[in-house]
Amino acid sequence: MSTSRTALVIGASRGLGLGLVHRLHEDGWNVIATLRDPQQAGALGDLAGVRIEQLEMNDTAQLDRLQQRLQGEIFDLVFVNAGVMGPLPQDLEAVSRGDIGDLFMTNAVAPIRVARRLVGQVREGSGVLAFMSSILGSVTIPDGSDLCLYKASKAALNSMINSFVVEQQRPDLCVLAMHPGWVKTDMGGENAEIDVLTSTRGMLEQVKAQSGNGGLRFINYLGENLTW
Ligand code: NAP
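Structure tokens for the assembled complex are given below, as produced in the milestone run.
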């Protein structure tokens, strides 16, 4: 990777996105972090070298404006982290059409719409484009029946990432579908297995290890390959 490295983290207000920004900042990267509400940047706004941008991922006009504001930037890492759990309980008889639409839009479609707008600015040869997937997105691992809609949305994301990679025809591009572990965040809950520091430290190590290896991989924060 080049000496002055720039990362873009999509969805950095809290949880894993916020943790990623902290790890990158500690590691000397220039960081651009997107928030839905930049007024709520909190301590993030005080981190030197962290530029805050606004993005509600499901808003096309905001996506286009972000693309314009980021013109000319070259990214060593674009990490599309934002995601939602969806309605709870995930009862197929009770769930509304709107809630299902929002879940699949946010978790599967919007990340690709972000990536399409920015992939041309991922550094040739060494840049990494990472999507926050989940092991629950594996269709071969029978798990997560309580979260069947979330699981399906991450399987859909994995499928969309595959189609995106084929569409790009860019063998140099390193694309990661990343499982962060089961992490103590608002989404992961307090009973989760690992903390944000452990997960984000691991993911940053994997980003660095995978830089320069073109192709698509589904891995976890420890670098282990996962089954699609
Ligand atoms: P979190 O604490 O709930 O944070 C979710 C983040 O996504 C927040 O910054 C949120 O912003 C942002 N976001 C949600 N919808 C958005 C939208 N439409 N546009 C822009 N930003 C949006 O969850 P987390 O645990 O950190 O999860 C981060 C990612 O990891 C998600 O993709 C999740 O599916 C994935 N993941 C988490 C775990 C886990 O154990 N925690 C495991 C596997 C995968 P606001 O603050 O504005 O809501």
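The helical segments are 15-26, 60-69, 97-118, 148-168, 196-210. Residues 11, 13-17, 36, 55-58, 81-84, 106, 132, 134, 179-180, 182-183, 185-188, 192 surround NAP (CB under 6 Å). Further analysis is deferred to the final report.
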